[in-house]
Design a protein that fits this description.
This protein is of the alpha/beta class and about 400 residues long. The protein has helices spanning about 20-25, 30-40, 65-75, 105-110, 155-165, 180-200, 225-230, 235-240, 260-270, 290-300, 355-360, 375-390; strands at about 50, 80-85, 90-95, 140, 150, 170-175, 215-220, 245-250, 280, 305, 325, 335, 365. About 25% of the residues lie in helices and about 15% in strands.
Length: about 400
């Protein structure tokens, strides 16, 4: 299999600097960025970007050190990473339940049934079933073309240490994943607690505790209401230390008629907690389900963010409504084809319409930061000013 270790990334508006210049830069107070995320959108406010799994594509593996560095070089103030726990309790940055798509686990073990994400066939063990020591620590990450890179699976501890050692100013969103099966949900709750143990003793180059710039982010299926989170032992430990863990609840459209009122009830309760930085709202259409939550948040001055549905093809020139998204084990599909019943009133997923979501009052967005829809020079200039303005 070909190896891609130094493929340059071509992105719009991203400054071409090297790691040495990044290390020589002066770190900024990351707490100011967290405060920006807390603020509701105003007309002249830049919509902040969180780079989805880092600044990947172009041969750069997702959730790896290089994708995080590139986000920092572009002055993107936040990255969204994905958290998993290995069978021996090590917290790693991996998106999928299985590790076949993004690692060389089959090749490493001498197997010939290499996993194919297009057919969902081949060796794809759960991350939670593989030990770090002796196995996962030796694996290499694959890029979007399935090529091996020189990067290893990234531990959360190594990510935080890199942010400190390389003097990065970076807010870290930790996505605990969504719509979990019961068994996976238990494993992810273990990962949530294990992540706290990693984070609580670390800080950035300015000595700011990682608990002030690492933000847990989970669907309200995971913790339905604040009381569910607040009873967790790890959360209570943070409160007792005077640093309650920061949190963003992901509020999505209900899956049953009896739960139609729950999103607004949930949003109001979450927004009342000081440890909640913002609300991520899974609005698909401007007048559909969750529009009442958006209206309430805007009227009461609460910050909102969303995931930009821009597709899984880097620098895709296609109109946003025709963008294709990877759906494991299936041919690529349009976002409209993946809509769950009851999530849109017009049959369309509008999350690729960034101008619409700005008008609706969303102050931050998670997206592929190399996408032309996000990566204009004006957008990145705004990000740089947000990061460096005192």
């Amino acid at each position: 299999m070909p190896v891609a270790v130094s493929t340059p990334v071509t992105t719009t508006g991203i400054p071409h600097q090297d790691v040495a210049s990044l290390k020589a830069s002066k770190p900024q107070d990351v707490r100011r960025l967290v405060n920006l995320l807390r603020k509701p959108r105003t007309q002249d406010q830049v919509q902040l970007i969180s780079a989805h799994r880092g600044l990947r594509w172009g041969g750069i593996a997702e959730n790896g050190k290089e994708s995080i560095r590139r986000a920092a070089l572009a002055s993107i103030p936040s990255v969204e990473i994905d958290i998993r726990c290995t069978s021996d309790g090590v917290v790693v940055c991996l998106h999928d339940d299985g590790i076949g798509r993004v690692t060389n686990i089959a090749e490493h073990l001498g197997r010939d049934d290499v996993y194919s994400p297009l057919t969902a066939e081949g060796y794809n063990p759960l991350a939670s079933s593989v030990p770090w020591h002796g196995v996962m620590e030796r694996l290499r990450l694959k890029n979007e073309r399935g090529e091996l890179t020189d990067e290893r699976v990234l531990r959360l501890a190594d990510l935080l240490d890199m942010i400190r050692d390389e003097k990065l100013t970076m807010v870290v969103f930790m996505d605990m994943y969504k719509r979990l099966k019961v068994a996976h949900g238990r494993k992810q709750k273990q990962a949530t607690a294990a992540a706290y143990e990693v984070i609580k003793s670390r800080s950035d180059a300015m000595g700011i505790p990682a608990l002030e710039w690492c933000i847990w982010k989970a669907d309200t299926v995971f913790h339905r209401l604040p009381a569910d989170l607040e009873q967790e032992a790890w959360f209570q430990d943070g409160v007792s230390q005077g640093l309650p863990p920061l949190y963003i609840p992901v509020i999505d459209a209900p899956t049953s008629l009896e739960d139609q009122l729950l999103p607004l009830v949930s949003a109001k309760q979450w927004a009342s907690r000081s440890y909640v930085v913002s609300l991520e709202i899974g609005l698909r259409s401007p007048h559909g389900p969750l529009s009442d939550v958006v209206h309430w948040a805007r009227q009461t001055g609460h910050s909102m963010g969303f995931f930009a549905a821009l597709g899984d093809v880097p620098n895709d020139p296609a109109p946003v409504e025709d963008r294709m998204v990877f759906h494991e084990g299936h041919p690529p599909m349009k976002y409209d084809e993946l809509l769950r019943p009851g999530t849109s009133n017009d049959g369309h997923d509008h999350r690729g319409d960034l101008a619409l979501f700005k008008r609706l009052g969303f102050s931050w967005v998670i997206g592929e930061a190399t996408d032309p829809a996000l990566g204009t020079e004006d957008m990145f200039r705004g990000q740089r000013e947000a990061v460096t303005r005192r």
